[in-house]
Amino acid sequence: VLVWSAAARPLNGTAEGGDLHVVVEVDGGALAAVIDGAGHGAEAAEAAAQAAEVLRAFPTESPLRLVRRCHERLRLTRGAVMSLASFDAQRSVVTWLGVGDVSGTLVRGRGVGSTTFLLPRAGVVGVRLPTLFAQTLPIARGDTVVFATDGVSTALVYEIDPTASTQIIAERILARHGRSVDDALVLVTRCVGGRI
Ligand SMILES: [Mn+2]
Fold first, then answer.
1. CB pairs under 8 A, 24+ apart, for 51-57?
2. What is the distance between the alpha carbons of residues 149 and 33, in angstroms, rounded to a whole number?
3. What distance in angstroms lies between residue 195's CA and the mean position of ligand 1's atoms?
4. CA of 119 to the centre of ligand 1 (A)
5. Which of 31, 169, 185, 196 counts the highest number of beta carbons within 10 A?
6. 124 C-alpha vs ligand 1 centroid, how far in Å?
7. Mean pLDDT by 10 residues, the chain (196 residues)
């Protein structure tokens, strides 16, 4: 259903960054997410790892339900911000949702080159959950969805070339729009299969 690439640069080159990505293919679809653990270092990494574990355990559940599950799981941590997308190849839709500062961008591969931005809600999963609202959009083969942590400038949108490979896009975004003051992670996914 998806081809994807991630590029990351932990702050100061430390091995234990607080940013994580998750991509899980399921029957007839896929789940993709980027998580940024609150703060830096081991505590941030721990919160992000726990959220990733929840997503990998329940990849077929709705993004809404997954964020609620993560909220319960992360209560004893410093929390995390995250954005996630559930791709449904049978219905040719994607449902996405974000809590806190992880950007989401959808760039169409065909027709009028339109761009749609995820509107994340302010909050921290595990600490303070906002009223959740998931948006469902039609999606087609060749469409590209990009998630990035706040260590990456939102100017990343200029690098999302629908004709370039996901790896090239991810590397360009990190090189040109990664900030040196925070962990930086970008996940580039493109729909390629199913009825999508
Ligand atoms: Mn961050």
1. 51/20, 51/80, 51/82, 51/125, 51/126, 52/20, 52/22, 55/22, 55/24, 55/31, 55/84, 56/22, 56/24
2. 11
3. 35
4. 17
5. 185
6. 12
7. 94 75 96 94 92 98 98 97 97 97 94 84 97 95 96 93 96 94 94 78
Whole-angstrom Cα distance, residue 134 to residue 3?
Answer: 23
Pairing of strands 80-88, 135-138: unpaired
CA of 8 to the centre of ligand 1 (A): 12
Instruction: Give me ligand 1 centre to Cα 55, in Å.
Output: 19
Cα distance between residue 113 and residue 28, in whole Å: 26
Asked whether the beta carbons of 67 and 97 are under 8 A apart, the reply is yes
Determine the length of the chain. Answer: 196
CA–CA distance, 157 with 171 (Å, rounded to integer): 13
**Cα of 92 from ligand 1 centre, angstroms:** 31
Q: What's the CA-to-centroid distance between 163 and ligand 1, angstroms?
A: 29
CA of 193 to the centre of ligand 1 (A): 32
Ligand 1 mean position, distance from CA 68 (Å): 21
* C-alpha–C-alpha distance, residues 32 and 24, integer Å: 7
Asked whether the beta carbons of 113 and 96 are under 8 A apart, the reply is: no
Determine contact, residues 177/151, Cβ cutoff 8 Å: no
Q: How far is the CA of 107 from the centre of ligand 1 (A)?
A: 23
